[in-house]
């Protein structure tokens, strides 16, 4: 048993057994490697699996480390603003550079320059499998470093659940809340930079490869690229908003988040574009317009709900939210009960799920793979919502019960 620092918190994610099983099961699904293209089949024998030798490539390792180095360098560039995080246990607040969107633009410029100098971006799709492997390996090694770093951290620096005393659970869920070296905040960096920007770069490479193979990218590929670029651009544009999310304010930084941020996001969130490269889908303009409308509705709800809560949490008397109805809580903070947050208790999740549907539809309905994100994301958000409800009930007690009475649905009005 590892030594514990301070009192132990109740375990989440199925406790020790749950985190051990999940740690053992985590692997990135194989990315398409070869140039095979054709209709997708849901039934029938699986294509032959790549051998172990297909996982390891020193070139992929070099590329991956250069990518992490580039994103770290962009993080350290002067920022347009430095924001303060939520108040910590010891009453202090951490400071965070707001330059994520700048990193996205500079990365795009560098990639554009590279391509005009002959960088073969279309070769990236063939390296996805070894890249996913080295990303998983780095996430694992990095999590070991985080675990060891947390052993010497003061109790006040640990996450609420980061002190179980069980090494596997603590390694998986993370011990320290905001591990940093000087101004470099590892969790904040990983959550928004290498994975998210890497995701849209992989999408772009898949689009280029498709253009190489068939003369021009398909409409379906354009839509998937456009929607997901909007999502990533939006996250980086509203970078400061991440400082009030559960990941930053509550969860420790361990293998689950490190792996999720740098390996899971880029290589599985790009599955729709990967699928389209190998299984081109015909898509007419009328259907494309309907899909764009679905994405626009999802984005409108997602952005509206997230911005409304952020504005309210930053300044409840801001004219944009001052007229909304609220419930007072014993902590002095208030809860919104009208506007987006009066419709369901997690309107932002609803918008996110509607967008997830719009990202899958361009891939047609011949295979389940493009719907993997939608299914996984539904499970993730249902679980996340339950965790958040538990925390809010603990934090706000009777006021939260009153909120649940007035806004009875969690994510989907009249359904859930
Ligand atoms: N694409 C992906 O893979 C993922 C995307 N997401 C997205 O990230 C975004 C952030 O999600 P997440 O961090 O889970 O949580 P939220 O942004 O929904 O934040 C939940 C917190 O909001 C506050 N809150 C809840 N209800 C109210 C209310 N009525 N009035 C005011 N404040 C309220 C509470 O905190 P407090 O009162 O302390 O402020 C609560 O803990 C979402 O849009 C989600 O869809 C999340 C996970 C994965
Ligand atoms: C399967 C596995 C290991 C899951 C780990 C979960 C993580 C992949 C997600 C937890 C919360 C996330 C958020 C985003 C990406 C996925 C992870 C890291 C996010 C950065 C996506 C863009 C959004 O606009 C966001 C900034 C609101 C969001 C924050 C949460």
UniProtKB/TrEMBL annotation:
Segments passing through the bilayer: 60-77, 98-121, 127-147, 253-271, 283-302, 353-382
Pathway(s) it belongs to: Steroid biosynthesis; cholesterol biosynthesis
Cellular component terms (Gene Ontology): endoplasmic reticulum membrane; nuclear inner membrane; receptor complex
Pfam families linked to this entry: ERG4_ERG24 (PF01222)
An MF annotation (GO) of this entry: Delta14-sterol reductase activity
UniProt feature coiled coil, ranges: none
Subcellular location: Endomembrane system; Endoplasmic reticulum membrane; Microsome membrane
UniProt keywords, alphabetically: Cholesterol biosynthesis, Cholesterol metabolism, Endoplasmic reticulum, Lipid biosynthesis, Lipid metabolism, Membrane, Oxidoreductase, Steroid biosynthesis, Steroid metabolism, Sterol biosynthesis, Sterol metabolism, Transmembrane, Transmembrane helix
Membrane topology: Multi-pass membrane protein
Region ranges (Disordered): 1-39
EC number, as in UniProt: 1.3.1.70
Record-linked InterPro entries: ERG24_DHCR-like, Sterol_reductase_CS
Catalytic activity field: 4,4-dimethyl-5alpha-cholesta-8,24-dien-3beta-ol + NADP(+) = 4,4-dimethyl-5alpha-cholesta-8,14,24-trien-3beta-ol + NADPH + H(+); 5alpha-cholest-8,14-dien-3beta-ol + NADPH + H(+) = 5alpha-cholest-8-en-3beta-ol + NADP(+); 4,4-dimethyl-8,14-cholestadien-3beta-ol + NADPH + H(+) = 4,4-dimethyl-5alpha-cholest-8-en-3beta-ol + NADP(+)
Keyword ATP-binding: no
GO biological process: cholesterol biosynthetic process
UniProt record similarity statement: Belongs to the ERG4/ERG24 family.
Function: Catalyzes the reduction of the C14-unsaturated bond of lanosterol, as part of the metabolic pathway leading to cholesterol biosynthesis.
Name of protein: Delta(14)-sterol reductase TM7SF2
Species annotation: Pan paniscus
Taxonomic lineage of the native organism: Eukaryota, Metazoa, Chordata, Craniata, Vertebrata
